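Re: Re: ligand-bound prediction request (bumping)

Still looking for help on this. To restate: I need the protein modeled with nicotinamide-adenine-dinucleotide bound, output as structure tokens. Inputs repeated here so nobody has to scroll up.
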Amino acid sequence: MKCYVTAESTPGETRAALTPTSAAGLIKLGLEVHVQPGLGLASHYVDADYEKAGVKFAADHDAALASADLVLRVRKPAVAEVAKMKRGAWHLSFLDPFNEPDLIGAFVQAGVSAASLEMIPRTTLAQKMDALSSQASLAGYAAVIEAAQRQQMALPMMMTPAGTILPARVFVIGAGVAGLQAIATAKRLGARVEAFDTRPVVEEQVRSLGAKFVKIDLGETGQTAGGYAKALTPEQVAKQQAGMAKIIAQSDIVITTAKLFGRNAPLLVTKAMLAGMKSGSVVVDIAVESGGNVEGSKAGEDVVTDNGVIIIGHPCLEGTVGHHATQVLAANYAAWFTHFWDEQAKSLKADLEDEILKGCLITHGGAIVHPQFASKS
Ligand code: NAD
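Reply:
Sorry for the wait, this slipped through. Here it is.
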């Protein structure tokens, strides 16, 4: 079986779907691995190390796509790329399937079995393949580092002969995977940290990291069967905003990570709340690519408000630590692949009853097989 790993074409993308270490693992299983030259350069994985691992370099991208039984990449492909693939081949990457009906249609047309990293179930069995978590965790870390660099303030308390510097106040909105890592990072840097999430179950996790959980009574909030937050009613959002306004005004750094799976992120920090913040405060909107939690945040741009608040809308914070983001992402791909590898047949097995495959396989055999997307065909 032949696997082809393409380099990323999105400007600024530093990550890759394969490291020399993960390549060696796939080759050991019996796979022939081909990559685009320079695959890992942006995250400092050099061609010489891929070569040592046994990887072959593809001189012709289109020919490699056309002959591969499995294609791996980080970001969703262009529709034109899918048409170049072999019928019956597999494709694994982030696909953004809720917003990409044309791309799903292209996979159907091409007869390619497309699996979406976002749709891998968040279960214990699938933990090693959970790319949403591996990347969100680094994004949470990077958000704090980014904010700390933009601040004109130190984060820890410092007692000096010239006076005491008070610890910076950090407020984290959304305490899922990214939020918890942001809390842990800000605590390690010595900040005073508060956090809020609509899922009350995370209160204990927030407190165990040494942060204060902000209590706002929103009534019934609940969570989906998959453990994700449910959308709030407009009344609940208004209550949440009122409950957070004072804390936001007092915070030096606000990090927003509140997302709703498969839907747009809720707007939680309004222009009026930003106007109440001190000059030089930093707000990092991790949800910026899915609509944003902060009014006026822009993907890929920093916005400075009239009162001097810096809003960072970096669309891929994990990419700022691309070496490690690639390390864990490549391990996620390798775990997925190993799970579905048929040792006897030396190929991937399409067990459509497998819980993980049922969760993440969008198209197979020239049809949409995932019930959540079948109606969008
Ligand atoms: P996410 O990225 O979808 O959302 C981030 C956080 O924002 C969540 O904690 C969510 O509750 C919160 N949020 C949503 N609306 C909000 C609002 N209005 N105000 C404040 N916070 C709001 O979530 P995630 O980090 O990907 O985690 C999703 C779920 O998956 C969690 O329950 C997590 O524990 C679970 N999970 C399970 C596993 C596993 O068992 N293997 C692994 C990872 C995550």
